[in-house]
Input
Amino acid sequence: MILQNAQGDARIIAGGQSLMPMLNFRLATPTLLVDLNRIAALSGIGMTDEGLRIGAMTRTRDIETSALIAQHQPLIAHAVPHIAHLPIRSRGTIGGSLSHADPAAEFPALMLAVDAQMVLHGPQGARVVPAGEYFQGLFETATKSAEILTHIDLPHWPEARRFGFQEYSRRRGDFALAGIAFWADMDGDICGECRVVAFGVSDRPVRLHGVEQILQSHPLNDADAMLQARDAVDDLLEPDSDLQASAEYRRMLAAELLQRAVHAAGGMA
Amino acid sequence: MAQGSLIGQSLPRVEDDRLLDGAGCYIDDVALPGMMHMAILRSSDAHGRITALDCSAARLVPGVIDVFTAEDWPQDMPVIPMRLIPLESSVPFLQRPLAQGKVRYVGEPVAVVVARDRRTAEDALEFLELEIEALPPVVTRDQALAATGDALMVPEVGTNISAQYQIGRGDIEDAFARADVTLKKTFQSHRHTAVPLETRGTIAVFDIAAGKLTIHGASKVTFFNRAELAKAFNLRNDQVDLITSDIGGGFGVRGELYPEYYLAAEASRRTGRPVKWIEDRREHFAATNHSRDVDCELEIAALKDGTILGMRGQVRADMGAYIRTNGNVVPAKAGQFLPGPYRVPAFACEVLALVTNKTPVGTYRGPGRIEANFFRERMLDCLADELGMDPAALRMKNLLGAAEMPFDTGDLLPNAQKVVFDSGDYPATFRKLLDECDWDAPAQVHSDGRLHAMGLACFNESSGGGLYENARISVAASGQITVSTGSSSMGQGVETAIRQICADALSMAPERITVALSSTTLLSDGVGSFHSRSTVMAGSAVGQAAAELLDQARGEAGRRLNAAPAELDYSDGVFRVMGQSDRSIRLSDLSAMLSDQGGLDVESRYEQAPLGFSFGAHAAHVAIDPGTGDIEVLDYWVVEDVGRVLNPALVEGQTIGGVVQGLGDALYGELVYDDMGQLLTASFADYLLPTSTEVPDIRAVATGDYPSPHNPYGFKGAGEGGIVAVAAAVGNAIARAIGPAGDAICQTPFHPEKILTLLHAAKKGKQ
Ligand SMILES: Cc1cc2nc3c(=O)[nH]c(=O)nc-3n(C[C@H](O)[C@H](O)[C@H](O)COP(=O)(O)OP(=O)(O)OC[C@H]3O[C@@H](n4cnc5c(N)ncnc54)[C@H](O)[C@@H]3O)c2cc1C
Output
């Protein structure tokens, strides 16, 4: 209601770890801040019939230390310590990170990798947007101006699924210059269905179908497949250059990180 | 307690309790009644003519009490002078507090808004209507050299070269003619700067009725700044007070006479209110002095056995848009320190200072040295490769030995001031480093898939400097001693050092000494804190003042005790007649008896002797990830002979801090401009600092083997040895780690992208 009445001039504040810097830089100048911090129903992690449900206001640190996440979403559990530094993880929320949609952030890539569903609530009621449609560009999501993200639903993670997660940043805790989230459902030694999601290399996290196809139906340690997969990463990505890294370097990194992630999944790291 | 017994002890820092408890008082903690806040409109163009500047809308913003521009300055705007290495050719490029007619860098002050709070003042900046007609931006050294017409910073001068001169010694032609090997390379030290956690700030209080200007938040060189501000506002020196507070890092950039001091003073004069200005981080990156940004074409001539015959080259400094108070220090020191601690019998170098449309350059911890050490030490490793020699052996062969001291370096400064290395045995100190880091041990095999190597670098470093320093010691009737010096505290431990020296000289418990530093109200005169000088200069001044005070007190004590001065023993603040312990008198009682003459209160000036030179060496162990180019510094060693060691813990802290700062500069921090002269790195998101997780294991060893003969305690400076050779040692380690591709490691900062690109290119070259 408040969001609607303010006609786009209000902003939600969650952990404030992205919004406060923007206010400081005068990059955002809302007249009204709507604080979600005291709405208990928006935070917590629980089991559902389909998998796990995470409230948007759940702190990154609580996800990092959650036994449910460790057991049922090992890829996420493994990746979360890469996000920023402890004090920032203690304040920042998963909903804030997903709504902010920084292309180098971990949560958006992870949500894409695990086929998460975003639950949005607005004046017209609730709707569900799959991760693949939710991220729409640099700091842009499918959320409409009077909507909020309330929950994220994560589908069941098969027990035999293997994964790897790799990212590179110059200092520990920084946003990644490039990163790869990977999982594979194995058919014996052979890679079956798999996911390759790259982040930090485009205006949003990207799923690399072409690379997935190359890896499928080979063992994870197949050297020829890996060479082809690395080349495909190079072909598929068109990152931007910025102060921290050129497009070319980001491509080189992504290819290397892919190899490391796949090898980690195959127990070869 | 005997005199001399406190020298060499690791007394804990007196300042820490206050600072760590949050009881420090920084400039932003100071609030005065009726205080207003100032925000500065800064140019967002690198180079252009101001065609219109309309302040009328900003003046109407509620809460704004004043707006002013260069046009509003009552007389001619003052010119901010050079304090160090001033050269005639640099004079036309001096800065004024506000842009007049033209803007010459992004961040140059153009107008000032004074309002009831900072927020209002910043909001009002958006109502200032500034129109600028663009002029061609000059952003590189080559552009500066080629500039004509509109690309000239000051067209009447006809060139963007602000200084150009030749230095050298020996017969350079002969050296190159006799050489078995010559190598030529081009090096570059990138633009970066000090990033103190506390940004700059000031409160100016101009009391027109009383004829008094008070500047809070001063530091570094308060007496020079006082004299200049007095001149600018038509006041006498004694009508201007500069007051220091606690400081969250100086590193050379804080406390210089910047435009903002003049602007706050003028704002206070115009409004009759105290006016506060606190720099924000974005301002810091554009407004505080930048530093380094020097390149060097260097050529070396040597015999097959590694004997260096000569070095020649050209040093070119990008000075930014104006020459500020530090004058030509950066280029001059880059030239002077190029031959370093080695014999180098023949040397010739041209020094060039060039003005460009960037933030002006000043001194930052180790000015010119960082650059020179990087250029020379990388060159020595390249020479060692060329000769197939161990880099340590090559250095050992050419370092100056004890028998060669004092060593006359020849005319290496533009003002022809003679520089002589005073003392030391450089090979012996270097040997200590090699032992510390186990250089001669067989190379370890590492199984982490990374490329490991060690790198070395040597340096020597002048200290002291600044013609004199004052110290004042007074004794209260309570027995408490107060000591003041012209050197100020920037958190570096000067309070501890001064207290320790004073306690030692008066043979008293340190707890009885209070240190009050650097406000211009405490002393008649003084110089300041820079050039690793505070312990050397202020420390010597304190020793001298203590001796004078005891002398005077001894005479008085003799008179009161009816004894000849020579019959008196002195210790722990008490004079006793020898052999008669019941005939005694305390310093505090003497001071009370002398209260009609102001008590015991001595101010003394210590005059500069020649500079002392410390010598040191660094070693770095790095590991490179061949898949990402990632550079990790795993271990770091520094051995430095700092002359007599006053307080080993302070020296160790200074050295470790210097190394960390140097690592940040070598690996992360870079001020980047685009082709239009826009500064792209204006926040911590883009200008990266090392954090605790990036700090390797650092071992810092200070030896006191070769005291300086030039001051009573034998001190040499210890504030810069930790930083000055980091880029050199890390660069050499990286180059050795990546093999032949390492030959191209000639520029800082060392970016993983560069490393990976070099490794890929080397692999392709082989295929
Ligand atoms: C130094 C530093 C380093 C960092 N490093 C990383 C890193 O390596 N990786 C990483 O992923 N992140 C990093 N971050 C960002 C951090 O993870 C943030 O916490 C996160 O991106 C935003 O979460 P928040 O809860 O703080 O959101 P806020 O800052 O409160 O909000 C962010 C945005 O989302 C909107 N919003 C918040 N919640 C909702 C909601 N429920 N519905 C709709 N809109 C909403 C807000 O209006 C705002 O626009 C870093 C931050 C800092 C300061």
Notes: Chain B has a mean pLDDT of 95. The two ends of chain B are 74 Å apart (CA to CA).
